[in-house]
Amino acid sequence: MTHLQRKLASRLMMTLLILLVVAACSSKTEGTVASTTGQAAEKSLPAEIRIGYQVSPNGELVAKALGLAEKHFPGVKISWLKFESGRDVNTAIASGSIDFGLLGTPPGASGIAQGLPNQIYYIHDVIGESEALVVQEKSSIEKLRDIEGKTIATTFGSTSHFSLLSAMKQEGIDSKTVKLIDMQAPDLLAAWQRGDIDGAYTWQPVQAKLLAENGRIIITSKEVADKGALTGEFGVVHNDFIAKYPEAVKTYIKVLDEGTKFYREHSEEAAEALSKELGLSPEETLKAMQEITVLDASEQTSPKYMGTPEQPGKLATLLKETADFLVEQKSIKQAPELSVFTESIRNDLYTQP
Predict the structure, then answer these.
(1) CA neighbor of 292 nearest in space, from 221, 210, 242
(2) What tens digit of pLDDT does each residue of 196-206 get?
């Protein structure tokens, strides 16, 4: 081999070595980037999402019945935890045992006033005729004022309790003249069947069961709301969860939106799915669905509801007024300023980046 040939061979070997080193570094870098990207994607979702729900005929219950959360969160364990009332949901939020929860306006306002670690991200429904004062057919109660001296059951701290007290205030009835009993829905139904109570202010599906057992309606929450005491149900998310998984919250909003649209566009199929959850016939379920107003994602930021970061809606004012009422009733010690309620509403989740 000549000197020139040896020189060329040496250069060729050097070039090959350089290419091998570059390729190795590139492969290592790509592997690191892929690994980092995979870790970031993995951290964007938790291993488990715990949803505290109530048996209410709304879009969230449809989402549960259709398995929509499981569809939108593949690989994530979805735990549906049933609660009988908003006060129990508040307790679960306070202890950190759930990530999402459903609350009525009174327990929701109470929770904000007491500084619970949650924020409002979705309005599930506006309550109408789905909550009502139902009395025994055999009772002498013909109108609201006739409940004086009677035994009436409701779930304290709930939307039903709030509407009952509001109706009594609107009618000028002193609460001391009525024997009000605090009962969860299942116990309330049992007390009705035993004849221990003259009436009950409650929600679906228990309301339908009371009516089926010789009950009749005296006043509904729609009538109470028409006189200024509106009630509804909204979703809250734990502060820690939304801080760590904001995209998961947005995805769950999509789950609720899909459930609500199915509720509206396929009402009979939705009633069929919900009937199993509610323990009612599909016909009774459809009637219960027609007694509330459900909201999809596009309606959340309406001035009537959550509003926008720039123009807050009426929800904050409603919660403030509800909290003030709860102070009057000595259910809570004090109500914070309107700004505290405004800041608890995450209407920014609906703005496009």
Answers:
(1) 221
(2) 999 999 999 99
The gap from C-alpha 40 to its chain's centroid, in whole angstroms, comes to 28
Backbone angles phi, psi at 223, to 5 degrees: -65, -40
CA distance 22 to 183: 73
pLDDT at 186: 86
Choose among 295, 125, 280: nearest CA to 271.
280
> Look-up: residue for tokens 């259910």?
331
Q: How far apart are CA 59 and CA 53, in angstroms?
A: 11
Tokens 């109660």, residue located: 141
DSSP annotation of 266: T
What's the one-letter identity of residue 20? L
Strand (E) positions, the chain?
Answer: 48-53, 77-82, 100-104, 118-127, 131-136, 151-154, 179-182, 199-203, 215-220, 232-238, 292-294
> In this structure, is the dihedral angle defined by the CA atoms of residues 98, 99, 100 and 101, taken in order, positive or negative?
positive
Distance between CA atoms of residues 340 and 323, nearest Å: 12
pTM of the model: 0.80
Contact (Cβ atoms closer than 8 angstroms) between residue 144 and residue 223? no
Angle between helix axes 159-171 and 105-113 (nearest 10 degrees) is 100
Longest Cα–Cα distance in the chain = 122
